[in-house]
């Protein structure tokens, strides 16, 4: 009977193409808005690193002014400790052997000198990190791999390039072993990444987390030797001294620190370790504020740093409401269309159709309209998402995935049902004797 | 086949009650061909609506095919309409979007018959009404007489025990009307009970019995009254 109802519904929809187009257009508009905004929310709410989000932890310590707490971020009253730690504390934590993996990291701008025949020197975003960084964040390699721990320890001049930078410097060939000048030093390429575009820059939520990952990666341990300063935020409440060495030994916070821990028990143990470190430092006159260290999982950190802002959630909710309004507005059109068909329905009732048969026939028509509107709405939302993606960042990562396509189809069917429920109920309640001249 | 006893049907508005059927009793035996006649407002339409389970009534007992159908659910009434009753309307009442095949198919669909059996029934019915070559014509592509034959084919395919026909020749010329009446005769010869409302004495003459209604009552079951005055007297 379902196929029969579908066939009858298609005939009915073809009978008045303009009205059909208006109804489908209304639902398409609602689906476009709701799919776009729910997808944006969905993209930022999903697990950025499945299987690891609860194993990667971000470490923070409160080394701020004993008299005034670190200022709360707008819209994030919870962040009352500095979002990064100092270089000296990062280096101290790196000496621990508790984590499975660990990496201090920061971003900097450095000048890369390609072969002059290929391109001109350019200032590039560089991430300084430890070799564990690549494994911790599942960074995919096309050629070679991360540098080893020895390179970390010795501050070797090795570099990992991303796919685009390798394309620019070496035409996309396997460049492992080749050399490239960065600032005044020559680096050896040890790895080239596959195209890698996580939907958020999950390892640096403190900055512009929708930005693309850096194209160049070099060992963190080169920082003092090359006197590399961060291109991100530096937070300090007292003088950082005059020299670069003073800056490294100061309480200015500019380094992000990540650890990979096997279990919640390990996380608790590591938290105790950090507390122990701070208590020890307190004896030397540092960390004068109350103990407030945080060892936060990646997933919790996303919430804390406002990756999913309440505004995004509100927009998603409003867009679904908009779809409901679109559907309800179509109720009048469908009611008129269905009631005009009362004589035909009465004939069907006389020939044996039950009220439920009539109801299902008309709901099928509504659902077909909903599906058609849904498909068109989804196509429109792909365009809308590209536009929104472009507004947020240079390369869009907002796209429909299987889950959102299913959600959009579900919303389409829901909109069709909402629009058609009352008209279908009205038409199935028509008394055949009133309509039939028998 | 059809037994109505003391049926009462009242149409109510805020201001007035109209007694469309009052103390209405009628028996129609299986295989009969009965013509129902009467002036406008005599209750013919209401009778057919009640007889066809298209409308409920306020009192009395109605038995169809030895089953009391006085108080049934919508599903049960729909089932009986589908299985036991066939309708032939004055204005044909074909579904304009559907071709002959699909129009005849409608009651069979609601009966849930398999596709093969439906196809056989439809083709056989179309052949009986002489429209085998027009299976995929839309109603708008057919004459009035042909459309009424499609409506008859729809009844034939469903093979009901009782046919309720309302002025089946009312919208047709005399030649077409004769063809339709011939078809109804033929169907009745095969044992199907027919109750036909008509204003036409010629059509009524083809029936085995005439029943005359006036003011919602049966006034004469054997022969037409000469005058309504006489009818009124006999009713009283």
Describe the fold and architecture.
The complex is a heterodimer of chains A (438) and B (236). With 438 residues, chain A is α+β, with helices and mostly antiparallel strands. Helices cover 49% and strands 15% of the residues of chain A. In chain A, strand 7 and strand 8 (185-193) form a beta hairpin. Chain A starts with a helix and ends with a helix. The model of chain A has no long low-confidence stretch (mean pLDDT 90). By secondary structure, chain B is an alpha/beta fold. Chain B has a single domain, classed as P-loop containing nucleotide triphosphate hydrolases (Rossmann fold). Chain B has helices at residues 44-51, 74-84, 100-111, 115-128, 144-158, 174-189, 201-205, 228-235, and strands at 2-12, 17-28, 33-37, 59-64, 67-68, 85-88, 162-166, 193-197, 209-214, 217-220. A six-stranded mixed sheet of chain B has the order 6-7-8-3-9-10, with helices on both faces. A four-stranded antiparallel sheet of chain B has the order 2-1-4-5, covered by helices on one side. The chains are: A alpha+beta (438), B alpha/beta (236). Chains A and B meet through helix 1, helix 12 and helix 13 of A and helix 1, helix 2 and helix 3 of B.
């Amino acid at each position: 009977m379902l196929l029969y109802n579908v066939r009858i519904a298609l005939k009915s929809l073809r009978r008045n193409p303009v009205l059909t187009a208006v109804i489908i257009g209304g639902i398409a508009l609602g689906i476009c808005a709701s799919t776009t905004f729910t997808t944006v929310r969905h993209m930022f709410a999903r697990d950025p690193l499945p299987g690891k989000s609860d194993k990667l932890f971000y470490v923070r310590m409160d080394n701020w002014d004993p008299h005034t707490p670190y200022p709360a971020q707008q819209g994030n009253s919870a962040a009352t400790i500095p979002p990064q730690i100092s270089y000296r504390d990062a280096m101290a934590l790196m000496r621990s052997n508790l984590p499975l993996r660990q990496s201090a990291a920061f971003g900097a701008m450095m000048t890369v000198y390609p072969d002059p025949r290929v391109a001109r020197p350019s200032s590039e975003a560089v991430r300084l990190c430890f070799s564990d960084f690549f494994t911790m964040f599942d960074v995919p390699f096309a050629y070679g791999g991360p540098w080893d721990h020895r390179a970390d320890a010795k501050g070797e001049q090795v570099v990992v390039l991303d796919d685009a930078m390798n394309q620019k410097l070496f035409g996309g060939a396997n460049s492992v072993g080749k050399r490239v000048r960065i600032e005044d030093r020559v680096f050896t390429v040890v790895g080239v990444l596959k195209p890698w575009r996580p939907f958020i820059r999950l390892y640096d939520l403190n900055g512009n987390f929708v930005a693309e990952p850096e194209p160049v990666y070099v060992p963190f341990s080169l920082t003092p030797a090359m006197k590399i300063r961060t291109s991100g935020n530096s937070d300090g409440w007292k003088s950082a001294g005059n020299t670069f060495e003073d800056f490294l030994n100061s309480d200015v916070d500019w380094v992000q620190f990540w650890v990979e821990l096997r279990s919640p028990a390990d996380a608790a143990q590591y938290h105790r370790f950090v507390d122990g470190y701070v208590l020890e430092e307190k004896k030397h006159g540092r960390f004068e504020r109350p103990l407030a260290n945080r060892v936060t999982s990646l997933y919790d950190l996303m919430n804390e740093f406002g990756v999913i802002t309440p505004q995004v959630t509100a927009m998603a909710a409003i867009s679904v409401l908009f779809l409901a309004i679109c559907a309800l507005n179509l109720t009048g059109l469908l009611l008129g269309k269905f009631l005009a068909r009362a004589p035909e329905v009465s004939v069907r009732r006389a020939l044996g159709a039950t009220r439920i048969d009539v109801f299902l026939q008309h709901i099928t028509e509504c659902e077909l309209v909903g599906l058609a509107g849904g498909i068109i709405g989804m196509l429109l939302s792909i365009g809308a998402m590209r536009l929104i993606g472009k507004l947020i960042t240079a390369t869009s990562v907002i796209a429909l995935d299987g889950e959102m396509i299913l959600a959009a189809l579900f919303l389409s069917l829901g909109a069709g049902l909402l629009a058609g429920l009352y008209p279908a109920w009205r038409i199935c309640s028509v008394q055949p004797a009133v309509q039939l001249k028998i | 086949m059809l037994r109505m006893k003391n049926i009462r049907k009242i149409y109510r508005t805020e201001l007035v009650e109209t007694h469309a059927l009052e103390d209405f009793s009628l028996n129609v035996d299986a295989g009969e061909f009965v013509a129902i006649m009467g002036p406008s407002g005599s209750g013919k339409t209401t009778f057919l609506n009640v007889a066809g389970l298209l409308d409920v009534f306020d009192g009395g007992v109605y038995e169809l095919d030895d089953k009391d159908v006085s108080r049934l659910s919508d599903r049960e009434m729909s089932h009986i309409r589908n299985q036991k009753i066939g309708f032939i309307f004055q204005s044909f009442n074909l579904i304009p979007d559907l071709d002959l095949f699909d129009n005849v198919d409608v009651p069979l669909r609601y009966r849930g018959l398999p596709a093969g059996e439906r196809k056989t029934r439809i083709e056989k019915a179309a052949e009986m009404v002489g429209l085998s070559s027009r299976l995929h014509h839309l109603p708008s592509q057919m004459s009035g007489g042909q459309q009424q034959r499609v409506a008859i084919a729809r009844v034939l395919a469903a093979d009901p025990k009782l046919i309720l026909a309302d002025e089946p020749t009312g919208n047709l010329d005399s030649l077409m009307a004769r063809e339709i009446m011939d078809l109804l005769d033929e169907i009745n010869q095969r044992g199907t009970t027919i109750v036909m409302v008509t204003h036409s004495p010629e059509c009524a003459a083809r029936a085995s019995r005439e029943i005359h209604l006036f003011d919602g009552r049966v006034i004469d079951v054997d022969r037409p009254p000469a005058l309504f005055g006489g009818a009124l007297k006999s009713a009283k």
